[in-house]
Amino acid sequence: MNLNATLFAQLVVFFILAWFTMQFVWPPIVKALDERAKKIADGLAAAERGKQDLELATKRSTDALREGKEKAAELIANAEKRGAQLIEEAKANAKAEADRIVAGAKAEIEQEAVRAKEQLREQVAALVVTGAEQILRREINAQAHSDILATIKQDL
Amino acid sequence: MAAGSAAPTSGEYIVHHLTHLNTTGHAQKAVVDWSVLNIDTLFYSVVLGLATIFILWLAARKATSGVPGRFQAAIEILVDMVSEQAKGIVHSAESRKFVSPLALTVFVWIFFMNAMDLVPVDLLPRIGEMFGIHYQRVVATADLNAALGMSIGVLLICIYYNIKIKGIGGWIHELFTAPFGSHPLLYPVNFVMQMIEFVAKTVSHGMRLFGNMYAGELVFMLIALLGGTATVFGFVGHVIAGSIWAIFHIMIITLQAFIFMMLTLVYVGQAHEAH
């Protein structure tokens, strides 16, 4: 362990090596490290943003789905209501129609009955007159009693 | 065992292994001799220093902010670790532009130099001997010159930032008024304390690394000596002790590199703080 000029040589080498590292080694490596740190930070931020976007989109899609379901339910309810209404209307119409037909038929029947009565009345009157004529031909002048016969015919 | 005509004694083996290949060609006599250069230390520290910046540069060249490969990710882990430590200790973004790369370089470089300890102690010296190089120490940080050289480098950086942040006047003022307070009688005491602090910081900074690596290297040599006895006991002992120490040393080399780096940051951070 003797001291000699190696000490100074070592001193010089020491500074040369340090200078070289400072000049050519340290800056690029530190720059790369800083850049990578920034990239990673950016990537993380982007991922965070993506997550938020996804959350937002999920929320929106849920809302849209819910809205769609509501609308569909509403449509179905409306359609059902409308259907029921249509059936009611149809029923009412049919009933009215039926009533009308029945009324028509009743009126016709009545008319028919009246006509039949009329016919019957005339036939009976004719028959009575004929009967009476035959009776009275023997006893009474038909012309003399025609007004009485007319009155009877009227009462039939 | 080291090659030689006659087998060396244990003492000779250790001494031989602890002798630097220097510009004089033989072991340095004086404790301090500024005319001598340790060629082995310089060679290994420069080669490993170049390997350090080459590997780091390789990662930096292809650094992308996209998906990193394994190699890039590994370097990034290192850079991030150093960067985080620097941020916690040095509170000036401007200073960190130099201090953080410095800490990274120091960490990787010292780690590599320490890791030379894990190469079998006799391998590289033996190869050297084949080419006529008789002395070689491969762990550059186990050379006090290297460790102190780096810690003095850190000291110079601390002085630079002291002056840069506080101004030359402010720093001199601090040298005389901290830590005990501003009073003419306390000026000398403060100054002496500050000087002791600087010297102690620097010496302990370098010595800690040197001491750990030197001791580690020595233990590897002793374990090699155990195997060198060429007995069953020696062989088994060498395998067991060598494995344990090498595994333990993985922690030591990393820890010492980390400690050196952290202390560099701490000292530079202290230079930024006004008392």
TrEMBL record, chain A:
Membrane topology qualifier: Single-pass membrane protein
Keyword line: ATP synthesis, Cell membrane, CF(0), Coiled coil, Hydrogen ion transport, Ion transport, Membrane, Transmembrane, Transmembrane helix, Transport
Lineage: superkingdom: Bacteria
Record's keyword annotation contains Metal-binding: no
InterPro entries given in the database record: ATP_synth_B-like_membr_sf (IPR028987), ATP_synth_b/b'su_bac/chlpt (IPR002146), ATP_synth_F0_bsu_bac (IPR005864), ATP_synthase_B_chain (IPR050059)
Subcellular location as annotated: Cell membrane; Endomembrane system
Main location per the UniProt record: membrane
Protein family: Belongs to the ATPase B chain family.
PANTHER family in the cross-refs: ATP SYNTHASE SUBUNIT B, ATP SYNTHASE SUBUNIT B', CHLOROPLASTIC
Record note on quaternary structure: F-type ATPases have 2 components, F(1) - the catalytic core - and F(0) - the membrane proton channel. F(1) has five subunits: alpha(3), beta(3), gamma(1), delta(1), epsilon(1). F(0) has three main subunits: a(1), b(2) and c(10-14). The alpha and beta chains form an alternating ring which encloses part of the gamma chain. F(1) is attached to F(0) by a central stalk formed by the gamma and epsilon chains, while a peripheral stalk is formed by the delta and b chains.
Function: Component of the F(0) channel, it forms part of the peripheral stalk, linking F(1) to F(0). The b'-subunit is a diverged and duplicated form of b found in plants and photosynthetic bacteria. F(1)F(0) ATP synthase produces ATP from ADP in the presence of a proton or sodium gradient. F-type ATPases consist of two structural domains, F(1) containing the extramembraneous catalytic core and F(0) containing the membrane proton channel, linked together by a central stalk and a peripheral stalk. During catalysis, ATP synthesis in the catalytic domain of F(1) is coupled via a rotary mechanism of the central stalk subunits to proton translocation.
Name the record gives this protein: ATP synthase subunit b
Originating organism: Azonexus hydrophilus
UniProtKB/TrEMBL annotation, chain B:
Subcellular location: Cell membrane; Membrane
Transmembrane segments: 42-60, 98-116, 144-163, 218-240, 246-268
Source taxon at top rank: Bacteria
Topology term for the membrane: Multi-pass membrane protein
A Pfam family assignment: ATP-synt_A
Keyword Protein transport: no
Keywords from the named record: ATP synthesis, Cell membrane, CF(0), Hydrogen ion transport, Ion transport, Membrane, Transmembrane, Transmembrane helix, Transport
Main location per the UniProt record: membrane
Family per record: Belongs to the ATPase A chain family.
Function field: Key component of the proton channel; it plays a direct role in the translocation of protons across the membrane.
Name of protein: ATP synthase subunit a
Organism: Azonexus hydrophilus
